[in-house]
Specification:
The chain has 903 residues and is of the alpha/beta class. It has four domains: 189 residues, Helix Hairpins, CATH 1.10.287; 62 residues; 249 residues, Rossmann fold, CATH 3.40.50.2000; 195 residues, Glycogen Phosphorylase B (Rossmann fold, 3-Layer(aba) Sandwich), CATH 3.40.50.2000. 58% of the residues lie in helices and 11% in strands. The protein is built from 25 helices and 17 strands. It has a nine-stranded mixed sheet with strand order 3-4-5-2-1-6-7-10-11, sandwiched between helices. The protein has a six-stranded parallel sheet with strand order 14-13-12-15-16-17, sandwiched between helices. A two-stranded antiparallel ribbon has the order 8-9. Helix 1 runs antiparallel to helix 3 and helix 10 runs parallel beside helix 12. The structure holds adenosine-5'-diphosphate. The site of adenosine-5'-diphosphate has 18 residues, from helix 9, strand 12, strand 13, helix 20 and helix 21. GO terms for molecular function: alpha-1,4-glucan glucosyltransferase (ADP-glucose donor) activity; alpha-1,4-glucan glucosyltransferase (UDP-glucose donor) activity. It comes from Punica granatum.
């Protein structure tokens, strides 16, 4: 297994490296491409320039021709001028005495801007007046020539510059070619990497299937272990029977001897004769029994041998297989059940006085830290007897390791899924699992109810250890059982009390609940004390275990169980468990001391004590299950008489929103569902809807007909009249309605039974009045909308579970609903948080308006509704962040206590 995990890790590393290389290659490619584009731009510019230069060169060539022509012309004109000046000289000899104006006017400065066309009308070039335009034209031509020359020069320069540019372009082209080569090399490298990546992905998937197979095999081994245990028991029984048979054989021998003696007197006495016959019959009977019993023993032995053989074979093959595939599973990957089982085993040894408290603590911490050596020791000891196993384990202890986290013990009356009435059970399991995942040592103490779901408890066994606890002036023994639930170590207390406190077929609702749970609270503390445990936090819940807080500080801290801080969570202030003050004495609490206004005395009745108030006063940390509810209970309307106490202790009181167990509530792996589905593949939701309609006999004519549901305890808190109204409103709006609920209140149960009979075999309504875990999963998955019209709601889990399964909540804005459901049409809430439909007033109009909006949204656009479904499925309602808040509260409280001890 270690190899496998090593391979997985390598493959994962390779994937990461490949991804990084891929990203780098893509970046390089990107920069090359942009460089290439820039170069291409430059080439384009240069090409344009080249074309321009070509054109200019052509023009220049034409100009040159023109210049040459002009030069010829100029040459001709010069010749002409020379001839003229010769003639002029001759003539000047004739006119030499005249003051001739030309002498003056001939000065070039006067003709500098004369143009050739000025003399074009002159008939005779030899005419004296004609020479002036001629000269000016020559001058102009010269000027033109000069300017053409300079232009020519600059063109030559341009051409030279362009040639240089051209050279540059050529070298750029060469660079482009190199870059293109580089690009193609990178692309092929990239392809290479991609194929390697897909190869390693395949490897990873193979490895994960191997891992699953391994887990499967592990489970088989455990099953076989159970089989072996059974077979061992059978063998023990067989040995017992064998002993009995031997005794019988002895008796038979004796009888035979007597028979011999009797034979002597056979003839002499008829009585003896009869006796003899009787004896023979008896012998026959005994022989038959012996034979039967021998056969039985033989069959037992055979069965045992077969089971042992089967176990041995499977074990060998598993060993081989596991040696081949996964020699050593990394310790972190072992299931949480394994560690919890190991922990309970060590505790069991300690409680049965087979190891010392110190050894138990040190071994416990090794388990807590999930150390490889203790895991290896377990593997080695699997086939050893208990004594050898203990000595192997104790041999591991060298030096005391330091604790990696907090040691938290929950004392509670419920734990999902084995003993669940409502949200409390979910919270105990969900919070404990999340804390365990964060590295804390978490243990749970529960009453051992007769009505628990025992098939969900693993490795349940009674310890050879009993805890004696005080009640009503006497000491009573308690049998201690251990087992794991959802991978958590759990202690079950079975009071050996004549009142059979937890053999009542139900969790609550008994006339003596106050007695039952005050007894349990004390027995739980007694267990911690006698087991020598030193928890950092003792976390108690609701009134049933609220007694723990005063019991701890008044009785158990003085006895030495003083390492802990007490955390109390109230899941619902409606249930306070008040009782006449005198009843408190049963569990050993001092009535005189505690029935005081500042301690446990009920705020509205001075004759009664209030366990919740006691826990608020005596705990170090007090929490409730949502921030809004924490505010509400501090008001006179919401506090159920405890608002003054809560305000007095407000510094230690906080509301933390519950999470849900996202492993247990996961549509992608939920085995109760017809089809598993997820936010990225919601098609399965429609299949679950169709399957549930078929199962419940509802009409399936229109797959788009909206399905509204409600799963709840039917108590006034849940807005029973609004649930009823929702059912009728759903029908009016053309939807279908399913209710799963039951009521501990007789008249409500009756009322709903009446509605059930009214809607028997109805096409669009189904009411199921019972508690049904698996059906609840299927309803969450099938529904389009989910209603929670509570009058008050401390936290509420159903809205979160519904969203996890893509059912859109329609909820009243109160307590935890106000902290978790945000209206789709509420502009004041950021868009990403909007997830359902809410209403403020707890009346039919309020509910109807939210209902109508929900139906409108559903009917108007299937696509938008689908997006909403996907969005709510992706919201995080896990315990992660809530557990972190508890962790912080615990740590701060422990740190404060340690600091106080130091000073
Ligand atoms: N009849 C029922 N069948 C199955 N599960 C139920 C039933 N009634 C309630 N539940 C479950 O009980 C839990 C209710 O928790 P929550 O909303 O906090 O309400 P409360 O704790 O007040 O009952 C949810 O997990 C819900 O699915």
């Amino acid at each position: 297994m270690e190899d496998l995990v090593g391979m997985i890790r390598n493959a994962e590393k390779n994937i990461v490296l490949l991804d990084q290389a891929r990203v780098r290659a893509l970046n390089d490619l990107g920069s090359i491409m942009s460089e290439k584009e820039a170069l291409q731009g430059e080439i384009n510019v240069l090409e344009m320039k080249l074309v321009e230069t070509d054109a200019r060169m052509k023009v220049a060539a034409q100009e040159k021709l023109h210049v040459e022509l002009l030069e010829d012309q100029l040459e001709k004109l010069k010749d002409e001028l020379v001839q003229r000046s010769r003639i002029d000289r001759n003539e000047s000899d004739v006119y030499k005495d005249h003051d001739y104006p030309l002498n003056q006017e001939n000065s070039p400065s006067h003709h500098s801007i004369v143009h050739p066309h000025m003399y074009k009308d002159h008939k005779h070039p030899l005419n004296r007046d004609d020479s002036q335009p001629m000269q000016s034209s020559i001058y102009t031509l010269r000027e033109e020539l000069r300017s053409l020359r300079t232009e020519n020069e600059s063109l030559k320069n341009d051409i030279q510059a362009l040639r240089d540019d051209l050279n540059g372009v050529k070298s750029t082209d060469e660079r482009v070619i190199i870059l293109e080569k580089e690009q193609s090399y990178l692309e092929s490298a990239l392809k290479n990497l991609e194929s390697k990546l897909s190869d390693s992905r395949e490897d990873v998937s193979k490895l994960s299937t191997l891992k699953f197979e391994y887990k499967d095999l592990l489970e088989k081994v455990e099953n076989l272990q159970v089989l072996l245990d059974k077979a061992t028991k059978q063998a023990d029984q067989a040995i017992l029977e064998l002993q009995q048979n031997q005794e019988l054989q002895k008796k038979v021998d004796k009888l035979e001897e007597s028979l011999k003696e009797a034979n002597i007197y056979k003839l002499s006495s008829e009585k003896l004769q009869q006796y003899n016959e009787l004896m023979q019959q008896k012998i026959k009977l005994l022989e038959d029994r012996l034979e039967r019993s021998d056969e039985e023993v033989l069959s037992y032995l055979q069965l045992y041998q077969e089971s042992v053989q089967e176990f041995q074979d499977t074990l060998n093959s598993l060993k081989e297989e596991s040696n081949k595939r996964a020699l050593n599973e990394p310790v972190d990957d072992l299931p949480r059940e394994f560690w919890s089982h190991l922990l309970l085993r060590i505790d069991g040894w300690f409680l049965e006085k087979k190891i010392s408290a110190n050894d138990a603590n040190l071994l416990g911490e090794m388990v807590w830290k999930r150390e490889r050596r203790i895991c290896n020791a377990y593997m080695v000891c699997k086939e050893k007897n208990e004594r050898d196993a203990i000595s192997t384990f104790v041999g591991l202890i060298s030096k005391a390791p330091t604790s990696p986290g907090l040691h938290v013990v929950h004392i509670a009356a419920e734990m999902a899924p084995v003993a669940k009435v409502g949200g409390l059970g979910d919270v105990v399991t969900g919070l404990s699992k999340a804390l365990q995942k964060k590295g804390h040592l978490v243990e749970i103490i529960l009453p051992k109810y007769d009505c628990m779901q025992y098939d969900r408890v693993r490795d349940l066994r009674a310890l050879d250890f009993e805890v004696e606890s005080y009640f009503e002036g006497r000491l009573f023994k308690n049998k201690i059982w251990i087992g794991t639930i959802e991978g958590l170590p759990v202690y079950f207390i079975e009071p050996l009390h004549p009142d059979k406190f937890f053999w009542r077929g139900q969790f609550y609702g008994e006339h003596d609940d106050f007695k039952r749970f005050s007894f349990f609270s004390r027995a739980a503390l007694e267990l911690l004390l006698q087991a020598g445990k030193k928890p950092d936090i003792i976390h108690c819940h609701d009134w049933q275990t609220a007694f723990v807080a005063p019991l701890y500080w008044d009785l158990y801290a003085p006895k030495g169980l003083n390492s802990a801080r007490i955390c109390f969570t109230c899941h619902n202030f409606e249930y306070q468990g008040t009782a006449p003050a005198s009843e408190m004495a049963s569990c050993g609490l001092d009535v005189q001391q505690l029935n005081r206004p500042d301690r446990m005395q009920d705020n509205s009745s001075h004759e009664r004590v209030n366990p919740i108030k006691g826990a608020v006063v005596f705990s170090n940390i007090v929490t409730t299950v949502s921030p809004t509810y924490a505010q509400e209970v501090r008001t006179a309307e919401g506090g159920r008489g405890l608002h003054t106490t809560l305000n007095l202790h407000s510094k230690k009181f906080i509301g933390i929103l519950n999470g849900i167990d996202t492993d247990a509530w996961n549509p992608a792996s939920d085995s109760f569902l017809e089809v598993q589905y997820s936010a990225t593949d919601v098609l399965g939701k429609a299949e679950n809807k169709s399957a549930l309609r078929r199962q419940l006999g509802l009409s399936r004519a229109n797959p788009r007909q909206p399905l509204v549901s409600c799963i709840t305890r039917l108590v006034p808190q849940k807005g029973v009249h609004l649930i009823r109204h929702a059912m009728y409103r759903t029908m009016e709006l053309g939807g279908q309605f399913i209710l799963l609920g039951s009521s501990p209140i007789l008249h409500i149960q009756r009322e709903f039974e009446g509605i059930v009979s009214q809607f028997q075999n109805h096409d669009h309504v189904r009411l199921i009045l019972k508690y049904d875990e698996s059906l609840s999963h299927r309803i969450y998955a099938a529904s389009d909308m989910f209603i929670i019209p509570s009058i008050f709601e401390p936290c509420g889990l159903t809205q979160m579970i519904a969203m996890r399964y893509g059912s859109i909540p329609i909820a009243r804005k109160t307590g935890g609903l106000n902290d978790s459901v945000f209206d789709v049409d509420d502009d004041t809430v950021p868009l990403q948080f909007r997830n359902g439909f809410t209403f403020l007033n707890a009346d039919e109009q309020g509910l109807s308006s939210a209902f109508e909006r929900a139906f409108n949204h559903y009917n108007n656009s299937a696509e938008t509704w689908q997006q909403l479904v996907q969005k709510v499925m992706n919201l995080d309602f896990s315990w992660d962040s809530s557990a972190s808040q508890y962790e912080e509260l615990y740590s701060k409280s422990v740190a404060r206590a340690r600091a106080a001890q130091r000073t």
